[in-house]
Design goal:
By secondary structure, the chain is mainly alpha-helical. The protein is about 80% helix and about 5% strand. The chain contains 7 helices and 3 strands, in the order αααβαααββα. α4 (about 50-55) packs parallel to α7, α5 (about 60-165) runs antiparallel to α6 (about 170-290) and α6 (about 170-290) packs across α7 (about 310-319). Keywords: Coiled coil.
Length: about 325
């Protein structure tokens, strides 16, 4: 802060009146004494005050400088603390972001591994189910073939014996052969139909099993995702609380205290400045009254018919 920068306009502007006597009364007195002593008429009625010198020469000015330095130091420390707080906050945020990123990647890997394990489990279950159904179908088909054999075996055997043992004409052989082939075809068609029936039933049951497995896999995936999201959310809240707590503690211990201390010092400085100004006003007023000055101008460099009261004012304050 520049010296005297805190002085009011009254002290900084030479065009302002610092102190004014009762002008009309003085003019009337001068008119009544028009033929009086010329020396009295030529006595200065204007005072000049060097405000910067007056302020700097005041006994309490050193206290002003000390307080201002203390305020500057406190503000610098508060600014440094605020910078540290911001840096710490950014570091905490970066660390928290890295922590969350690492956790998210770990959770994703865990999710993929567990999903793969679940898929393998369901795939194996479907394979086992298909193998069991296929084995059951084979048993059913074998039983059905045995039933057909009991039904067709004698008929086929009798026809085969006739072809081998009897003396038959070509027409008779052809007729018996045709009948034999018809029985064999009928038997095979029934076996094929039964096999198709069992296969279709197995396919239908496996489709139902696959749908069940798919729903189970989707439900498992949703559960995993929910658990992952909840864990990430909990961790995010923990890290956010940690960041806010650390920054809040740092600000409370340094920045906030510094700001409060600076404000208290500023109030003390303002009161001290006002005290100095009041001393200058009171002393200048007394000098003006004692010397019969009409006005006191601040910081006027050249004014022939004026008296500089700065040193007298400082002496009056010190006394």
């Amino acid at each position: 802060m520049k010296e005297g920068a805190w002085m009011p306009a009254l002290f900084r502007n030479h065009r302002r009146l610092f102190y004014t006597m009762a002008g009309l009364a003085l003019l009337a007195l001068a008119a009544g004494c028009g033929q009086g002593d010329k020396a009295a008429q030529n006595a200065p009625v204007i005072g000049i005050l060097d405000t910067a010198k007056a302020i700097q020469g005041h006994p309490q000015y050193q206290q002003v400088q000390v307080l201002q330095r203390e305020i500057n130091t406190i503000q610098a420390q508060a600014k440094l603390a605020d910078t540290k707080a911001k840096q710490a906050y950014e570091q905490e945020k970066t660390a928290a972001a890295m922590d969350m990123d690492s956790l998210a990647k770990a959770m994703e890997q865990q999710y993929q591994a567990r999903m793969k394990g679940k898929q393998n489990e369901l795939t194996q279950r479907l394979k086992d189910k298909a193998a069991a159904l296929n084995n059951d179908n084979n048993i059913k088909l074998d039983a059905y073939v045995k039933e057909l054999d009991q039904e067709y075996q004698n008929q086929i055997f009798n026809l085969q014996v006739k072809l081998r043992t009897l003396q038959l004409t070509s027409e008779e052989q052809a007729s018996i052969q045709k009948e034999l082939e018809a029985l064999q075809t009928e038997r095979m068609n029934k076996i094929t139909a039964r096999q198709t029936e069992l296969s279709n039933a197995m396919k239908k049951e496996m489709e139902a099993e696959e749908k069940i497995a798919q729903k189970e896999l989707e439900a498992y995936s949703q559960t995993m995702q929910q658990e992952t999201n909840e864990r990430l959310e909990r961790r995010n809240k923990e890290l956010s609380a940690k960041v806010q707590s650390s920054i809040g503690s740092l600000q409370a211990s340094e920045t906030a205290q510094g700001v409060q201390s600076a404000e208290e010092k500023k109030k003390e400085l303002a009161a001290l400045k006002e005290s100095i100004l009041q001393d200058l006003r009171n002393t200048a007023a007394q000098i003006a009254q004692d010397r019969g000055l009409e006005i006191i101008l601040a910081d006027v460099k050249i004014y022939t018919n004026a008296v500089d009261i700065t040193d007298e004012l400082l002496q009056g304050i010190k006394d």
